[in-house]
C-alpha cells in the first residue's frame, strides 16, 4: 500500500520519488532491526552505534556462507519489491523524458542552493515554534560550552550566505508572492540583512536536530539526505517545497505536550486566516492583464 501511495505521489510530483526512497530505506532498516539477535534500546539506536550494529548484522549474514547471504539479499529484495519497481519505473521515465522536469526546463534548472536549508529551518520555526522554544536554554548552553565549534559553524553559514544567496528571476518579477516583498524590501535592498538572520537559522537548525535526536541514527541521516536532495537543487524558493519535509519532520517528533498542540493549532489557524484575509482584500491589476491579481504564498 505504501508503494502504491508512493507511485501516486510521484505521478503528482516527480521529486516525491525521494520521499519514496526515504520510506524504502526505512523499511529496509526495519527488516534489519527485526533480524538482530537481541533487542536494542532506542537510546542506543539513536547514536552512531546504530550503524555499527547494522554493519555487524550484515557481516554476520555474510559469515554464514555465500548461499545463505544470497538468500538473505533475495529476502530483502522481495520485501522491498514494490518499492524497487516504482523506483525502476521512475528511472525509465527519466531516461524516456531525458530529464526529470516536465514543462519549461529553462525555469527549473538544477543548481546548488544551500541557503534553501536555512530558509527551510526558518519555515519550520514559524509553524512549529512551540517545539522550538523549549530548546533555547539548551542552545545557549551549547553555545557557551562549544563556542569554538559554534563560531566555526556561524562563519561557515555566513560564507554560504555570501556566496550562495541565489535568487530566481520569478522572485524578482512576480509581485503576487510574499517572497517578492521580502527580497525587494529587505534581503535584496540591505546587504547586511541576510546575515542578521544567522542566529535564527542556527537556533532553528539546532532545535530541529534536537527534535529528531530520538530517532534511529540512520533514520536521522536518511532524513537529512532527503531534505538536502529535495531543496538544495532548487533555485526557486517556494514554501510548497518545504511542506513535505516539514510533514515528515513533524510526524517524527516525540509525543508533544498538550500546550504545544494548542499553540501550534492556534498558530496555523492564525497564519491561514491572515493568508485568506490578504488574498481576499489585497487586489491589484497588471497593465497587461485584465483580471485581478492577488497575493499568496
UniProtKB/TrEMBL annotation:
Known pathway: Protein modification; protein glycosylation
GO function terms (MF aspect): dolichyl pyrophosphate Glc2Man9GlcNAc2 alpha-1,2-glucosyltransferase activity
Cross-referenced InterPro entries: Alg10
TM spans (from-to): 80-97, 109-131, 146-171, 192-209, 221-249, 261-279
Predominant location category: endoplasmic reticulum
Record membrane topology: Multi-pass membrane protein
Family in the record: Belongs to the ALG10 glucosyltransferase family.
This protein's name: Dol-P-Glc:Glc(2)Man(9)GlcNAc(2)-PP-Dol alpha-1,2-glucosyltransferase
Organism: Camponotus floridanus (Florida carpenter ant)
Top-level taxonomy: Eukaryota, Metazoa, Ecdysozoa, Arthropoda, Hexapoda
Amino acid at each position: 500500500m505504501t508503494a502504491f501511495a508512493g507511485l501516486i505521489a510521484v505521478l503528482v510530483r516527480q521529486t516525491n520519488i525521494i520521499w519514496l526512497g526515504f520510506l524504502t530505506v526505512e523499511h529496509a532498516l526495519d527488516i534489519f532491526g527485526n533480524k538482530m539477535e537481541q533487542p536494542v534500546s532506542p537510546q542506543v539506536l539513536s547514536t552512531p552505534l546504530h550503524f555499527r550494529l547494522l554493519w555487524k548484522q550484515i557481516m554476520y549474514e555474510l559469515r554464514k556462507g555465500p548461499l545463505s547471504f544470497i538468500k538473505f539479499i533475495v529476502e530483502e529484495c522481495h520485501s522491498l519489491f514494490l518499492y524497487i519497481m516504482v523506483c525502476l519505473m521512475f528511472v525509465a521515465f527519466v531516461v524516456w523524458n531525458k530529464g526529470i522536469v516536465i514543462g519549461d526546463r529553462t525555469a527549473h534548472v538544477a543548481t546548488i542552493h544551500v541557503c534553501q536549508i536555512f530558509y527551510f529551518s526558518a519555515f519550520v520555526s514559524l509553524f512549529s515554534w512551540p517545539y522550538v522554544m523549549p530548546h533555547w536554554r539548551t542552545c545557549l548552553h551549547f553555545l557557551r560550552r562549544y563556542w569554538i565549534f559554534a563560531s566555526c559553524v556561524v562563519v561557515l553559514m555566513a560564507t554560504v550566505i555570501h556566496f550562495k544567496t541565489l535568487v530566481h528571476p520569478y522572485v524578482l518579477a512576480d509581485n503576487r508572492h510574499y517572497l517578492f516583498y521580502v527580497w525587494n524590501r529587505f534581503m535584496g535592498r540591505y546587504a547586511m540583512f541576510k546575515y542578521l538572520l544567522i542566529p535564527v537559522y542556527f537556533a532553528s537548525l539546532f532545535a530541529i536536530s534536537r527534535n529528531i535526536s530520538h530517532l534511529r541514527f540512520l533514520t536521522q541521516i536518511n532524513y537529512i539526505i532527503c531534505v538536502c536532495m529535495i531543496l538544495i537543487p532548487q533555485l526557486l524558493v517556494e514554501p510548497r517545497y518545504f511542506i513535505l519535509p516539514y510533514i515528515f519532520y513533524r510526524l517524527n517528533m516525540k509525543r508533544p505536550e498538550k500546550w504545544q498542540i494548542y499553540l501550534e493549532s492556534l498558530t496555523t489557524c492564525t497564519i491561514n486566516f491572515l493568508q485568506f484575509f490578504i488574498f481576499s482584500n489585497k487586489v491589484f491589476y497588471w497593465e497587461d492583464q485584465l483580471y485581478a491579481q492577488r497575493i499568496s504564498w
